[in-house]
Here is the input.
Amino acid sequence: MKIWDIIFRNDRQKNTQALIDLEITPAQRRVVIEKLVAEDYSDGPLPDTLNKLSPMWIFGKQVKQQEVYIKITIGNENYPVICISFHRAEHPMKYPLKK
Here is the structure.
């Protein structure tokens, strides 16, 4: 992400709605993703059946007392990271690396 940047799937209504519901800007969403740490890991790698790119990884992060579901794929070499999902978690998330 720091080298090739990140693309957000803003064409998905729930991703756009999350910014409104959480009262954050797209720039703040980027900061949330930049602050992800190993303990925020929830699942993956999972096959990217939609874009057919590199595997997807799922993370969760607290944003304004809300658990946010974040699904990203590293993308292909020399291409940006893709944030597929960024919205409030619809189900309880598990964090296998949290102590």
Observations:
- DSSP finds two helices and five strands in the chain.
- Residues 13-22 form the longest helix (10 residues).
- The first strand starts at residue 6 and ends at 8.
- The chain has a mean pLDDT of 89.
